[in-house]
Amino acid sequence: MTTKKVYIGCGAGFAGDRFDAAGPVVRTLAQRDGPRYLIFEVLAERTLAIAQRLRRNAPQAGYSPYLDHYLEPVLAEAKKQGIRIVSNMGAANPEGAARRVLELAADQGIDGLRVALVAGDDLLAMHKAEEIRNLPTIEGITLADREIIAANAYLGARPVAEALELGADVVLVGRTTDAALTLGPLIHEFGWAEDDLDRLAQGTMAGHLLECGAQVSGAYFADPGFKDVPDLAEVGFPIAEIDEAGDIIITKAENTGGLVSRATVIEQALYEIHDPANYLTPDVVLDMSRLRVEEVGPDRVRVAGAAGRPPTSTLKATISIDGGWLGEGEITYAGPNALARAELAASVVRRRCQILGIQEPVRVDIIGTGSVHDNDMGSQRTGKELPADGEYRVRAAVRSSSREIAQRVSDEVLSLYCSGPAAGGGVRQYVTEQVSTASVLIGRDQVLPYVQVREVTS
Amino acid sequence: MSKIEVPLHAVAHGRAGDKGNRSNISVVPYHAEVWPYLLDQVTEARVLDIFRHKGATAVKRYELPGLMALNLVIDDALEGGVNGSLGIDGHGKTLSYLLLGELRVKVPADCLPEGSPWRGSGI
Prior knowledge:
The structure holds two protein chains of two kinds.
Chain A: E1 5-12, H1 22-29, E2 36-40, H2 45-57, H3 67-71, H4 75-81, E3 83-87, H5 94-107, E4 114-119, H6 129-133, E5 148-153, H7 158-165, E6 170-173, H8 180-190, H9 197-210, E7 238-243, E8 248-252, H10 262-269, E9 279-280, E10 285-287, E11 292-297, E12 300-304, E13 307-309, E14 314-335, H11 338-355, E15 362-367, E16 390-400, H12 403-414, H13 416-419, E17 425-443, E18 450-455
Helix pairs in contact in A: 7-8, 8-9
Chain B: E1 3-7, E2 12-13, E3 16-19, E4 22-29, H1 35-41, H2 44-51, E5 58-64, E6 69-75, H3 81-84, H4 95-102, E7 104-108
Antiparallel strand pairs in B: 1-7, 2-4, 3-4, 4-6, 5-6
């Protein structure tokens, strides 16, 4: 007797991920027997805040602007093969996303597609902005007098499982934990109870390993000569095979580049983790301190040993507030004496900002001197032996609540074209609206997740 | 066995992640024989020294002996992080390589990975 296995592939690990990555994942899943799922994780904290702004301007908008790009190529094949899709492309408007998926299905002649949406994460829909503003933030940031753009609680995996119980082919959520996209299907398939803590921990571990896409299968890993990765341009996205006991095999789509090894899995296991014994989620507190990771075949790594403890009584919520403007400008100096010309340009920009009476701190980097690892003062550059000739890029940056000031600092780099040192070239300017985020904890009774199902009817 | 002093990068790999103004960096040796040397030499104090110019205030080291990996959590390392940094990499994604490059460790010469450019350098 073979034990039931659930296959979960990942088609995207962030909002800017490749649109064609899911194809090989779907083709591989199509050859497997058993329940199969395809997840897309495309919702960072800032992405959600931007989506909320889009929705405010146009009520139909506010779901992932890339929904068509990700789903159009795979929707028909996934439905045909019985591969169910779970994604947080709902962003600030899961209902709008569901409507759009139904339109896509109708356009492609996909009959009987059931689409479920999970909502209830939006705290602004249930609470007054003033109430939210008064919550203490984990970071100690004060929210008073700041425009609240978005406030969303992290839902867990249970509502996702509930949507699957209702027979959904596609489940669209807003803010849930990224791991819920994987744990939801596992709870649905195996019926794991709330006190099946070690299994929930393993399911969360699987989700954590899948949620950044190819970061577990050879991407964000290659370091030529030290860590070589085959065919990164066509890196294969990961697939997890999970059995009823919660045992995980991490592998990847067939006929692709990349690699799954002990090393790729360990790097991703610890990615964005603080205390490995206390990874808090709404479903379980994950303890990975006794995690075991072993290679069991080519591009096959077994992950076991995650332990679980009961979840806390609160949920984390992200509050997004207006973050003002970031103004940046860049210019390059190259060839003989490039470093001295770049240093001169940097000091001209600093002096100009003084003359203009800019009050905000202005940072001026010289890219090529190790500036990314330096600080606002450039203190590590002093006394460092650097080639006098070569290629250096001066970059000025300021943050301000005023767009005008952000623009003015950026323009001081532009003006170096005619008023700076010899032969500056390649100016680029960026003035971008910023979102700041803070975290709060709220009681579970303050959040009411709900599920709705829609269907294409011909 | 003769020891060789090399940057951490010669014997270990890692990845940086961010949450707010806090960075976490994993450190994983290529060879198991290096593990005790990392436990001994990749200390909280030495890591803090490398990130102090960024404003870092504290380092907590978590050990995962089953994985043979360290997780270093560095407070206030990101100059405000994506919310506030004026630097070009507010997430601190490149910081794993600051650590791997700046922290030097003394290890037995035969612990270096096959084909490592540090093999036979004798420094």
